[in-house]
Design brief:
By secondary structure, this protein is of the alpha+beta class. It has three domains: 215 residues, Rhopdopsin 7-helix transmembrane proteins, CATH 1.20.1070; 104 residues, Beta-Lactamase (2-Layer Sandwich); 176 residues, Reverse transcriptase/Diguanylate cyclase domain (Alpha-Beta Plaits). Helix content is 59%, strand content 15%. The strands form two sheets. It has a six-stranded mixed sheet, with helices on both faces. Helix 1 packs parallel to helix 8, helix 3 runs parallel beside helix 5 and helix 15 crosses helix 16. The N and C termini lie far apart (138 Å). The relative contact order is 0.05.
């Protein structure tokens, strides 16, 4: 086999091997490679191809081929170092590359035998280096590493002999015998090393990859064990759901709080833990998770015994690689004690508010609540442009009733009238209040004068129907009341005090006209006044 054929085989083999490495790099979901290896093979392919075209000639193209080939040898040395478990610092790699190029260029100015000898020295170095990396201080060295290290060392020895011959016996290098033998042995040696090293390097790369996979698996197993311990000993409850929101994992704390065993929890739908009044919260939170949104919220869950327990839930959506909802992870903190206190405090505040706005005798709203509601409704008129009606009611000759029947009966009389007012108004819209003493008042939002008078007539009739005896009344043998009714529209020039004053005057007119009457007026620029007698 002649020298040209060997060089061509070396070039084609290196190029095919480089393409194989590229395919392996970009195949599969994980892209891993041995640093410098692909560059090494492409450089060796290019250098061998150039030498194939320049067999027997030493010129600038041959020099370029040798430079590229030397860089390929250097890159292969770095690849072997990486496979042996050690890294190549970037500055070392760059420095060696610069030195290779500089010294290779300098050989142009040397006599051909000496230039070729210098190149052989560098090739010797780059073949000995992998041998050192593989054989030096490797207590757990494998048989493949030993074989590869010996192969590189033998190749380095061949190039060392070639370098000695070129430098020590330059006059014989171009002789017909020595030149042919020396320069035929070197490519053949390179080709043999190429075949042996390529196979062993692939095996080492696979071995290295397998070791990395094993290490990753061990790391994952270790992490899983640590995670399992953390989850099992966590003070918070932990739940993991599948895409249908069924429980696929629960820790002991969660099971203990809800009163279930772990086997009872797994497989149950999350919705089965929610009381009826919490179902909307569950639906909304599931919707957020399926949209990939995380959240922190509070909810009530039912235990196995039916007991309600409150939790603060920190929920995180789990999405697959395609971005589809694949489940959820939730950490639940039991806040039942705190929530019970909060609900009790809220109920207490509500009761206090009701008490502060409720008349203790009649059970309806007091003057304070009446004033606040009137201000609120009158301010609303500025936006709605609607009408607001007010009724002031005064029990006729109530002092005489107290003098005749006593304060106990008087209080009972006022309580009955309070119940009448509550029954005659719209519960969720209107307001009935004790205005003071024997006076009562009603606020009727979105009510015109006619409707307000109808309400007054209804109250008046219900009071008569009570048939509360009143012997000292000059009007009737039973308790009666007088009414002042006014209807207003919003005007920035009209104050609440003015409105109340007008209603009070209408009430006074009703009393002055003989009592047990309804006097009414609408404030819309031109006031109209009428009275409805008993």
């Amino acid at each position: 086999m002649d020298l040209a054929t060997v060089m061509l085989m070396l070039a084609v083999g290196s190029f095919i091997f480089a393409l194989l490495l590229v395919i392996l790099k970009f195949s599969g979901t994980t892209r891993r490679e041995v640093p410098f290896w692909i560059q090494a093979k492409f450089c060796q392919a290019a250098g061998s191809l150039l030498l194939f075209t320049r067999v027997g000639i030493f010129d600038g193209v041959t020099l370029l081929a040798n430079v590229v080939l030397l860089l390929g040898c250097a890159y292969e040395a770095w690849a072997v170092r990486t496979l042996s478990g050690r890294l190549v610092k970037r500055w070392v790699h760059l420095l060696v590359s610069v030195v290779v190029v500089a010294i290779s260029v300098s050989t142009v100015f040397m006599a051909p035998p000496f230039g070729r000898g210098i190149l052989f020295v560098f090739q010797t170095l780059f073949y000995f280096l992998p041998g050192v990396f593989l054989l030096h201080k490797q207590p757990d060295r494998s048989l493949l590493q030993t074989l590869l290290g010996v192969s590189y060392s033998l190749a380095g020895l061949v190039f060392l002999i070639a370098a000695i011959v070129s430098l020590a016996f330059p006059e014989h290098v171009f002789g017909p015998g020595i030149d042919r033998r020396v320069h035929a042995v070197i490519p053949l040696t390179s080709f043999c090393i190429f075949l042996i090293s390529s196979y062993i390097l692939l095996m080492l790369a696979k071995q290295r990859s397998d070791q990395q996979v094993v290490q990753i698996q061990k790391s994952l197993e270790k992490s899983e064990i640590q995670f399992q311990r953390m989850v099992e000993t966590a003070l918070e409850g932990i739940l993991i759901f599948d895409a249908d929101y069924r429980i696929v994992f629960a820790n002991k704390q969660m099971a203990s709080v809800l009163g279930y065993t772990l086997d009872e929890l797994v497989g149950r739908p999350y919705s089965s833990f929610f009381p009826q009044n919490q179902l909307e919260i569950r639906k909304y939170q599931e919707y957020l998770r399926k949209c990939g949104k995380d959240a922190v919220y509070e909810c009530c869950l039912l235990g196995k015994s039916g007991e309600e327990r409150w939790f603060k839930v920190s929920a995180k959506a789990i999405m697959d690689e395609a971005g589809r909802f694949d489940g959820a992870f939730a950490m639940l903190t039991d806040i039942t004690d705190r929530k019970v206190m909060e609900l009790a405090l809220a109920d207490s505040n509500r009761r206090l508010t009701e008490l502060s706005n409720t008349d203790s005798l009649t059970g309806i709203a007091n003057r304070r609540c009446f004033d606040a509601a009137l201000a609120r409704e009158y301010a609303r008129l500025s936006r709605t442009k609607s009408k607001l009606s007010i009724i002031l009611i005064d029990v006729d000759d109530f002092k005489a009733y107290n003098d005749r029947y006593g304060h106990v009966m008087g209080d009972e009389c006022l309580r009955q009238i309070g119940r009448v007012l509550t029954a005659c108004i719209r519960e969720s819209v209107d307001l009935a209040a004790r205005y003071g003493g024997e006076e009562f008042a009603c606020i009727l939002p979105d009510t015109d004068l006619q409707m307000a008078v109808q309400v007054g007539e209804r109250i008046q009739q219900r009071i008569r129907d009570l048939k509360i005896e009143h012997e000292n009344s000059p009007v009737s043998e039973f308790i009666t009341a007088s009414f002042g009714v006014t209807t207003v529209q919003y005007s920035p020039e009209r104050s609440l005090e003015e409105i109340i004053d007008i209603a009070d005057k209408l009430l006074y007119q009703a009393k002055a006209s003989g009592r047990n009457r309804i006097v009414f007026a609408e404030l819309n620029g031109e006031e109209s006044k009428k009275q409805i007698p008993s």
